[in-house]
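Whether sequence alone determines local backbone shape is best considered at the level of individual chains. In the encoding step, the backbone of a single protein was reduced to a row of integers, each denoting a local shape. For completeness, the protein is quoted in full, as a sequence line and a line of structure tokens.
***
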Amino acid sequence: MHEDTKGTDNSGTGLRRRRWYYGGLKDIPRPRCLWHGSLTAVTAQNTLGVRAVQEIDPSIVEAQINAVAEDIGVDAAKTGMLSSSPIMEAVARSVRRWGFPLVVDPVMYAKSGDPLIRPEAMETLKRVIIPIAKVVTPNAPEASHLAGFHVDTLDEAKRAAKTIAEELHPEIVIVKGGHLTGNESIDIVYFRDSGEYRELRAPRIDTKNTHGTGCSFSAAIAAGLARGLDPWEAIKLAKELITTAIKYSLPLGHGHGPSIQWHGLSLGL
């Protein structure tokens, strides 16, 4: 069972659509991965930007996670939008209590550039959430904040991945290549314990319709972990899925349209 702790996105990249692909990953054993969600915030947004945010009370966030974990169980979880320090502390308490592997998508900004985290919560993210992560999946701007220096090239991404792993202590750091330059989208994967770097390469797809890709990528990794896959296998399959999702993205709205994960089903993912 896979737990997703995040804010909602009513523009089409949130909870409803992602039900399509959990367990749709290639080679994940049947039965498919069952999804459960714990809401941390409700957003009003579209492809152009975020119009409003209502945070959920931290005690309710914690109660949601505990209610699922104590009854159904959690094999892996991922976090998305954690907008305040009290919410982060609540999530961390539940993760420590139940001990399930955690994938952290360190959401800081919406695709439109609107902030999704309070400024004072940046340090809490680094101090409380990142250290309990099995996998953390920052894009280049997020990696810049976490590592403390600008990330714009592949070499800088490698340096950032190692810095985040050594200073903040997650087991695996993936600096995603979507914001980097070049004909390929190259994700840098760094394994803290072995000091090993690996790369995930995919053709760069010329589209602005990438709304929700970071959320989907991290959730797909968690789904693979929940089904017992080796972390590297889960990461590779998630990369394959999100590349396909971007390929079949939709030009909806006047901004960044959504990627379409359910194409993974027809492709046998």
